[in-house]
C-alpha cells in the first residue's frame, strides 16, 4: 500500500511541474494565474498524501491552512488584476 502512495506522490509532483510550466509559458496573465492556482491545489493534495504516507495526520491541518492561504491569495491577485486591466 505504501508503494501505491509513493507512486501517487511522484505523479502529483509531475503534475505540479506541468502546472509550473503552464504558469511560466502561458500567453495571458489570467492563464498564468490559473497555472499558479493549479500548482497550489496540487501542493495541498501532495501535503495530504505525504502526511498519510508518513502516518502524520497533523499534515492534514497544514494542507487545509495552505488551501485557505492559496484561495485568499488568488482572490487578492485576481482583484488586483481586475482593477488594473484596461477596458477595451
TrEMBL record:
<keyword id="KW-0472">Membrane</keyword>
<keyword id="KW-0812">Transmembrane</keyword>
<feature type="transmembrane region" description="Helical">
    <location>
        <begin position="62"/>
        <end position="81"/>
    </location>
</feature>
<comment type="similarity">
    <text>Belongs to the CPA3 antiporters (TC 2.A.63) subunit F family.</text>
</comment>
<keyword id="KW-0813">Transport</keyword>
<dbReference type="InterPro" id="IPR007208">
    <property type="entry name" value="MrpF/PhaF-like"/>
</dbReference>
<feature type="transmembrane region" description="Helical">
    <location>
        <begin position="33"/>
        <end position="55"/>
    </location>
</feature>
<keyword id="KW-1133">Transmembrane helix</keyword>
<protein>
    <submittedName>
        <fullName>PH regulation protein F</fullName>
    </submittedName>
</protein>
<keyword id="KW-1003">Cell membrane</keyword>
<dbReference type="Pfam" id="PF04066">
    <property type="entry name" value="MrpF_PhaF"/>
</dbReference>
